[in-house]
């Protein structure tokens, strides 16, 4: 796991830039983050009453033992639309004028922001169009349509879909609802921070996933304004980590071809608005590998009984990768739970393999009646669970009476894997790999 070195926080964003007038919703779309305060986040929280849920916070005994301090999970995966995005989207759209609402809204997203905008617009009686990458998960596309938006597929990543959405806004007059780069979005997401302080007033560290930075910026602004002693740690996927180079440069910079299974944080460039707040108030940014994300998602499913998407599991991945680095009590924000079932299957198997609980091997045996039953009898004695088995009989590498069998087994861990292989060899089988 890589990390951005801890930094001394700068002056607050409000002090660092010229102030703006007006409550949330009244700022220009391209305006600076200056003037955004905890009072704006409080106003957003009031506005969201009856719209978004104050999501549960659940303790995790497993993570608490691992970290050596209480660890709590802030369950935004249980939020309406399955993620925190409804918060910022509703605040942003609610602040539009009647003329702007009449023109409709447009957004770009891999799925979570899309659903948040679609539902928020529908609740407020506003027409919505959402551009999504062509490989966006099918369940997210279907859900966005079900919430009332017109969906258009364009580009390979969110940044390309965003370019198309911006062009659509110029052509039609629709208001662009950016996924993260607007003060109202940050204010809405910051309501998560207020809830954390209410639910866990003794918190010492908050760990939150980061893509463009809207959620981390909002939480940091809310929490640091009231509890400057609380440490805020952002987490990015190593293959889509745009913040470390941006923080080093002192300005948002783009990375080429972000790549990660965590589509919710697969962003190539930080937003101007959240970057200023993250640069000033977030104490540290860490990166996690795809293996760590897989393991974290599996842990959330098995131990916490929580369905989360890879982006939502990123804070847990950071805790698993370096448990001693976080002062407790710790709150890890599970930002979303909208995961494609097919992706979930692949991640589960990958996570099991990373944990040494998924064993794949090939072996050769004599092709005669009862040979497979004998092999299965040996495996039964090891208590390994056979997930899949296949035969290869026609291969120039095999002898006339040989057959190659490929096995996929579920085990209890690395030690059990070694025991299974040892039992097979003791029974006279040639284990190829």
UniProtKB/TrEMBL annotation:
<feature type="compositionally biased region" description="Low complexity">
    <location>
        <begin position="18"/>
        <end position="35"/>
    </location>
</feature>
<dbReference type="InterPro" id="IPR005789">
    <property type="entry name" value="Thr_deHydtase_catblc"/>
</dbReference>
<dbReference type="GO" id="GO:0030170">
    <property type="term" value="F:pyridoxal phosphate binding"/>
</dbReference>
<dbReference type="InterPro" id="IPR050147">
    <property type="entry name" value="Ser/Thr_Dehydratase"/>
</dbReference>
<keyword id="KW-0021">Allosteric enzyme</keyword>
<comment type="similarity">
    <text>Belongs to the serine/threonine dehydratase family.</text>
</comment>
<dbReference type="InterPro" id="IPR044561">
    <property type="entry name" value="ACT_ThrD-II-like"/>
</dbReference>
<comment type="pathway">
    <text>Amino-acid biosynthesis; L-isoleucine biosynthesis; 2-oxobutanoate from L-threonine: step 1/1.</text>
</comment>
<dbReference type="InterPro" id="IPR001926">
    <property type="entry name" value="TrpB-like_PALP"/>
</dbReference>
<dbReference type="InterPro" id="IPR000634">
    <property type="entry name" value="Ser/Thr_deHydtase_PyrdxlP-BS"/>
</dbReference>
<dbReference type="GO" id="GO:0006567">
    <property type="term" value="P:L-threonine catabolic process"/>
</dbReference>
<keyword id="KW-0028">Amino-acid biosynthesis</keyword>
<dbReference type="GO" id="GO:0006565">
    <property type="term" value="P:L-serine catabolic process"/>
</dbReference>
<dbReference type="InterPro" id="IPR045865">
    <property type="entry name" value="ACT-like_dom_sf"/>
</dbReference>
<feature type="domain" description="ACT">
    <location>
        <begin position="360"/>
        <end position="433"/>
    </location>
</feature>
<dbReference type="InterPro" id="IPR002912">
    <property type="entry name" value="ACT_dom"/>
</dbReference>
<protein>
    <recommendedName>
        <fullName>L-threonine dehydratase catabolic TdcB</fullName>
        <ecNumber>4.3.1.19</ecNumber>
    </recommendedName>
</protein>
<keyword id="KW-0100">Branched-chain amino acid biosynthesis</keyword>
<keyword id="KW-0456">Lyase</keyword>
<dbReference type="GO" id="GO:0009097">
    <property type="term" value="P:isoleucine biosynthetic process"/>
</dbReference>
<comment type="pathway">
    <text>Amino-acid degradation; L-threonine degradation via propanoate pathway; propanoate from L-threonine: step 1/4.</text>
</comment>
<dbReference type="GO" id="GO:0004794">
    <property type="term" value="F:threonine deaminase activity"/>
</dbReference>
<comment type="subunit">
    <text>In the native structure, TdcB is in a dimeric form, whereas in the TdcB-AMP complex, it exists in a tetrameric form (dimer of dimers).</text>
</comment>
<feature type="region of interest" description="Disordered">
    <location>
        <begin position="1"/>
        <end position="35"/>
    </location>
</feature>
<dbReference type="GO" id="GO:0003941">
    <property type="term" value="F:L-serine ammonia-lyase activity"/>
</dbReference>
<keyword id="KW-0663">Pyridoxal phosphate</keyword>
<dbReference type="Pfam" id="PF00291">
    <property type="entry name" value="PALP"/>
</dbReference>
<dbReference type="InterPro" id="IPR036052">
    <property type="entry name" value="TrpB-like_PALP_sf"/>
</dbReference>
<keyword id="KW-0412">Isoleucine biosynthesis</keyword>
